[in-house]
């Protein structure tokens, strides 16, 4: 299917391309996923060194949405997606597969960081945190396990994009965790 970007999608795409570490806050159904994938594709075509990409998302979104979007849109069908989900053996296999975009769920982050030895062999040059409000539990001290694992590799990751439609569902203090990664 041919992707015809609307004004909001063009703004999201261009903002992601121009801003290495950013938040994209847009309502559900505003095509954040396809806009982010299109931005990745343009960066890749322009010769960006920020590859491969890791998408962290809720399990269903990591399993279905990102791969479905690359299959759905003509201009994204060349992107290879590997889903780092399932048993430890399945996750290892997915990590070793040749792909442009790897997807995983938030619960697998501590395992993934440990698998790659933290900063030593971390291969991902761009991270997209889909539903980034899941990072709101991050604190320097007494924070969540997933966010603490991500904090080990955040500064060596060249690009970071937080995507969400609900940046602060219970107040402004919910913004601190996701914004630390920016």
Automatic annotation (TrEMBL):
Cited InterPro entries: P-loop_NTPase (IPR027417), SNF2-like_sf (IPR038718), SNF2_N (IPR000330)
Source organism phylogeny: unclassified sequences, metagenomes, ecological metagenomes
Species: marine sediment metagenome
UniProt-listed Pfam families: SNF2-rel_dom
Protein name: SNF2 N-terminal domain-containing protein
Signal peptide: none
Domain (SNF2 N-terminal): residue spans on this chain: 27-177
A Gene Ontology molecular function term of the record: ATP binding
């Amino acid at each position: 299917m041919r992707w015809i970007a609307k004004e909001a999608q063009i703004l999201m795409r261009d903002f992601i391309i121009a801003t290495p570490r950013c938040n994209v806050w847009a309502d559900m159904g505003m095509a954040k996923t396809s806009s982010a994938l299109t931005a990745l594709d343009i960066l890749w075509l322009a010769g960006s060194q920020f590859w491969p990409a890791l998408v962290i998302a809720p399990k269903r979104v990591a399993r279905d949405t990102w791969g479905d979007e690359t299959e759905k849109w003509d201009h994204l069908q060349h992107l290879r997606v590997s889903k780092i989900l399932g048993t430890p053996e399945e996750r290892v296999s997915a990590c070793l597969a040749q792909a442009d975009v790897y997807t995983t769920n938030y619960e697998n982050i501590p395992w993934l960081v440990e698998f790659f030895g933290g900063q030593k062999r971390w291969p991902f040059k761009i991270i997209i945190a889909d539903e980034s409000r899941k990072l709101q539990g991050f604190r320097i001290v007494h924070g969540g396990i997933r966010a603490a694992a991500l904090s080990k590799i955040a500064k060596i990751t060249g690009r970071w994009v937080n995507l969400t439609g609900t940046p602060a569902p219970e107040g402004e203090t919910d913004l601190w965790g996701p914004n630390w990664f920016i």
